[in-house]
Here is the input.
Amino acid sequence: MDENLWRKLTHNYSKESPPNAENPTRLHVQFIFLHLTLDETQMLLGVSMYFRQYWSDPRLRFDHLKKTAGSVRLASKYFHQVWLSDIFFR
Here is the structure.
């Protein structure tokens, strides 16, 4: 993504606020399990997996994209600048 476009999209953007403060954010989650191990004697479960989550943030909408593509993937250097859902596992 172009640096100038990123600055324009994030002007007045707060990563501390959810995408839509008035309605819940629809979060899509995928688990892809690669390997499971179970040790019944020690009651341990080991999991190797991919975890993916995605959502739409209307505050970052760029209307010109509708003419070319539905979405743009964000480069990893911008990840710390956008809202992220709170994820935890027990």
Q: What stands out?
A: The chain has one domain: 3-13+28-81. The longest helix spans residues 3-10. The mean pLDDT is 85.
